[in-house]
Amino acid sequence: MENKENRQEPSMVKTLGIVKMFRLIGPGIIIAASIIGPGTVTTTSSTGAKYGYMLLWCCIVSAILAYILNEPGLRWTLKTGKTMLEGIREMNPILSKVTFIALFVGALAYQTGNYLGAAMAINLLVPGLSISVALVILSAFSVVIAFVGRYKVLENVNTGLVVMMLFAFLITMFGSGPSVSGIAKGLIPNIPEGAEVLVLGLVGTTVCPDIPFAMSSLTKKKWKNGIKDLKPAKNDLRLNMILTGVVTCAIIICSATTLHPQGITVSSAADMAQQLIPVLGRYAGVLFALGLWAAGFSSAIYMTSCIPPMMAEAFGFEDDPKGWKNRVCVGIIALFPIIVTFVFSGTVPTAIIIAAQVLNTLILPISVILITILANKKKVLGEYSSKPIQNVAMGLLAVVVVLLTISAISSFM
């Protein structure tokens, strides 16, 4: 009997280990799902099509920078029990409100891209369903999830969507038959002539100004043991930034393998899915469209579900998913893309996209400064305040942010 129990023990330990791993999935999966939106898919697709594997390293660097930007919020929230927007409100109530309003305006513009990306993917999968109808359906689903207002529902939905993205993009990548030597060369940092703005764009699609504040808000909801949860919270963030890097690398590799040799250019993620059909067969186009839908819908859900709680933190009122303030906020976020699309006959005005890019790029330096100030409050955080090496890392991130800002201003003047 004893030997039989011993023989079963490794299997039980393995099963418990897998269960424990899934239990540790937290806000990071929601953040990963929000980062990988249609804009990211478009940028990475265009990069691979134009420069092949050469900028593959940039996806890895971007994921690392995203971890550096989000990690201080974990320490702040788990130590103080407050979100970063609540911390900023304590420093200056006006500053927290201005920060949120800027993030909200940028979110509205990007939400239009999220919905349209997912709607175009649905149109590719179901040609008989128009983009306008798909937009309304997507909006309704995201509103329902937001009104449910339960963190676990949001986490589970986004986990499923991230898994779908991983499956779709990785299968498509392996099906394209990539060059191992080309991938190896692409991991060595090198910026081709004329690719400087695109490099900054790749970083900008991953290092977003609203993400750290949302991460802080979600952390407060997920982890209930205070600073004792810092290690699993960091592991969760680390794991999901790795997943973000893997997905973006897979998209670049796929377009570098299939489109770059033929000189095909990509102007949108939907173009990428369509271009794959004659190259790899219809299954690849369908898989890529499925990944694009997951990318757009997960980012749309993030905006609809995470922005209202951030509003409550910035303005200092109760976060009630069923309250009228939250519902008005959700309604605006959900309806804005539909109104814009119908008014402009199914196309997104370039001015709105440009405004979103410029606004979010200009907000990013402010986000870095505010996060750094909070993370260095030794009287509040004690031993969990930023160490010199962490401040150096944030300093390097700040340099990239400044370059992003200068690039954005010069590009649109």
Please tell me about this protein's structure.
It is globular and about 60 Å long. It contains 18 helices and no strands. The protein has helices spanning about 1-25, 25-35, 40-50, 55-80, 85-90, 95-125, 130-150, 150-175, 180-185, 195-205, 210-220, 230-260, 270-280, 280-315, 325-345, 350-375, 380, 390-410.
Could you give the topology of this structure?
Blueprint: H1 2-23, H2 27-35, H3 38-51, H4 56-80, H5 84-91, H6 93-125, H7 131-148, H8 151-175, H9 180-186, H10 196-206, H11 211-222, H12 230-258, H13 269-280, H14 282-315, H15 324-343, H16 350-375, H17 378-381, H18 388-411
Helix pairs in contact: 2-8, 2-11, 2-12, 2-14, 3-10, 3-12, 4-10, 4-11, 4-12, 4-16, 5-6, 5-14, 6-7, 6-13, 6-14, 6-15, 6-16, 7-14, 7-15, 8-12, 8-14, 10-18, 11-14, 13-14, 14-15, 16-18
Give a short overview.
The chain is 81% helix and 0% strand.
Question: Which sheet architecture does the biggest sheet show?
Answer: none
- Helical content, roughly? over 70%
Gap between N and C termini, in Å? 78 Å
What is the number of E strands? 0
Query: Structural class, judged by helices and strands?
Result: mainly alpha
Shape: globular
Listing every helix as H and every strand as E from the N terminus to the C terminus, the arrangement reads HHHHHHHHHHHHHHHHHH
Number of helices: 18
Mean pLDDT: 81
As a whole number of angstroms, the C-alpha radius of gyration is 21 Å
